[in-house]
Design goal:
Elements: H1 2-40, H2 45-52, H3 56-62
Length: about 60
């Protein structure tokens, strides 16, 4: 019983962590897409950085 409970708890924790990681990745991907769109509109990189929370260096890499 103890092993089953432990396994069940472990699976539940793993799913929770996976969902959290997926959410973070999705948010980051949205920031990148937003930055790309703003770059296409010739918005200043510093403004894009403030709006998205991405570093200027990260945004500069998106130009290429």
């Amino acid at each position: 019983r103890g092993m089953r409970r432990g396994r069940k708890h472990g699976i539940k924790e793993g799913r929770k962590e996976g969902k959290e990681e997926g959410l973070k990745e999705g948010i980051n991907q949205t920031k990148i897409e937003t930055a790309k769109n703003l770059l296409a509109e010739n918005i200043d990189i510093n403004i894009i950085s403030k709006a998205t929370g991405l570093l200027v260096e990260e945004i500069e890499k998106l130009k290429f």
